[in-house]
Amino acid sequence: MDWPSLHVFVGTPDAGQILLDCSHNIFLVALAFGVICAACYATMDVAERAVNVEVTRHRRVWKCLAALCLAGGVWAMHFISMLAFQAPLRLTFHMGITLASLLFVMFAGAIAVRSLGKPHLNTLDCLVSALLIGLGVSAMHYIGMAAVQSDAAQYYDPHLFTLSIMIAFLASLALLILPRLLRKNGGMFHQMFRYSISLFLGAGIMSMHMTGMHALSLVLPEGAEMQLADTPNSQQLGLTIAAIMLLIVAGSISAAMADKKLQGKERDLQRVNNLLNQLDQAQMSLQQVAHYDPLTNLVNRRGFNQLFAEQLIEHATSQGMLAVMFLDIDHFKRINDSLGHDAGDELLKVIAERIRSATRVQDVVSRFGGDEFCILISVPHYEEARHLAHRVMQKMKEPIALSGRRMVMTTSIGIAVFPRDGETSEELLKNADLALYQSKGNGRNRVTFFSPALKTRASLELHLEEELRNALREETGLQVFYQPIIDLRTGHVAKLEALVRWEHPEHGLLGPDRFIGIAEANGLIAELDNWVLRRACKDLGALRLDGFDELVIAVNCSALNLSREELADEVKDALEQADVEPSRLELEVTENALMGNISNTIVLLKHIRSLGVSLSIDDFGTGYSSLAYLKHLPLDTLKIDRSFIQDVPKSSRDMEIVHAIIVMAHTLHLRVVTEGVETPAQLDFLSQYASDYVQGYLFSKPLPLAQLLPLIKQMNEREPASLWPASVMLESRRQEVDIPRSLDLFKDLPASREHYSRSHPVRTKRTRWSD
Ligand code: C2E
Ligand code: CA
Ligand code: CA
Fold it and tell me: What is the pTM of this model?
């Protein structure tokens, strides 16, 4: 290689030349080193800044600044070092070539910054970039040297020349690798590490320059006239360049720092914003949790109360009407018990959707918990509330597919209207609840508006509950009446059904429909049933003394009692204490009670039956028996509900049903008792269709045991044949009696348990077969 004044691989001429003795001004060299270190520091700082800037345009500006810092630094280092170079002849610089050298170092700077900006740099990329940067810097150096104009020719030691390029390459490699380590290290050593890297890189680039200079020999042809160096003002020039360069570097660093601070602040601001957003969201979800029901997404009781309070204020001002509707899904518990809670939850979701779709957007629909829903609607008149309630009930009746079954649900609704039924939300909700209770008591699947009579009834029931508690505790007032069950084969009384009565000090003799519901609702039913059971067992003992040692007594057992494991022990206890054979006792359980929690019930019933007590299924046909279960239940007797017989012989359909039930029961090896037999025609029909037993007012109303005994005796003394034809015989024995339903207050109100109102409507006068 042979540049006009550079000779690299040609070797120094042996003769005719004067080798010039050159040296370096140590002060300027130190200054150059300072400049390059500062430039390296600034480059790293600004390049790091560029990486963190999000706006592309800004990033580009930062990158240019970093490249400029590096290029300017290297170039200034070179220029100051050249000023430090002291040769015994005059050296001048060619302006054009000097500027051209700047272009190369700019190229190297650009490559360096580009590579530093990449998040990942693979080895090949890194090596190629380092090579390009090294070559750029070297090119800048040697082109800069070519810009030196003097009488002497420049000869370079090829080894040192190559070494200088190698050093340039290695320094470039270090420039690309070391700052990356900085990104990984944080904390207090970060800054120290950055300083060290800057020194290291500065030293690398400086040593490249010095090696290049060391490779140089200035050779003056012999005889050439040597122009001596001017008195150097190179120090001043060097200082000026260094000062300018350092200013640029300092400017870049402070710009980077200022920007960093600004960015830091922006980031802080962003963080605060994010935190505020999170806080907002947290507040919203808190609101959601506090005011909404997670299962159905409807407002919960708390949310409802808040909306209710707001609407009450609004309606009080506008004098509008506001209806509160309480909804309860009929027999929802059965779904939960039989299909499980997951199915129950699924059903609640569907129901919530149904209610929502039956209401308007502005109506408030809420789930209070369990299967209890509440609707709040603004209405122009009462009828509007009734329409909505019917719409909901209609929607509810559409079949629902659940756990592979299709089922139809119904709902009971109670309505209270502002301002007629109350002024405050508590009062209105309480009154709507009372109305709902009434709907349920009336047989469910119906709507009831609140009325003051309901309130009277409620307070009366409250009073009755208290009195019933006392009656049970003090064993006063409660009595057991018995109704005979006649064996159709013999015409004799085979069993007596024990039916509880309450001789109330004010209201007179109360039937069970007036207080069983109260006992069930207030946890008194177990005690009540147990009392009847013990009484019946005692009476069985007395009957034996009277010679009726074959007579069986059937005792009713509430559905709620079937969930109590103690029941079997209580039965055993009662039998043992009265010293009666278990075969003389029968327990009557309603079919709904059986189906409630079928697996537990079967275990309990088997236990009771193992004592020797027989079991009968009561009110058959009014509930939801499944034949599949029926055949697994340890039953002896099936009692056909009165509602199937009351229209016989008018209703041929009922006759067919009764016939079918008898056939089915016999197929399952169950004996059949038909309840509610009131007419000879019914008796004729039943004996024709082979009902095993009959029970009803035709034979006797329920009576105290003492009154019943003569009648039983009389019936049992008769020859079976004398019973038939029943119609002829019974006609002569009729007599008008009052049925003990004495509480006038109750007369217009439905019973609290649906069962009674359906199968035992209120009657005031009735004929009775007695002596
Ligand atoms: P149930 O078990 O179906 O009892 C038969 C009911 O039908 C009795 O009403 C009886 O008086 C009535 N009855 C019988 N024959 C005729 C008839 O020919 N015509 C009409 N119209 N009615 C007839 P009662 O005594 O009012 O009992 C009503 C219900 O109260 C019973 O229905 C039973 O479920 C329940 N009950 C009675 N005593 C007890 C008891 O000690 N414990 C429990 N848990 N429930 C009881
Ligand atoms: Ca019964
Ligand atoms: Ca019955």
Answer: 0.55
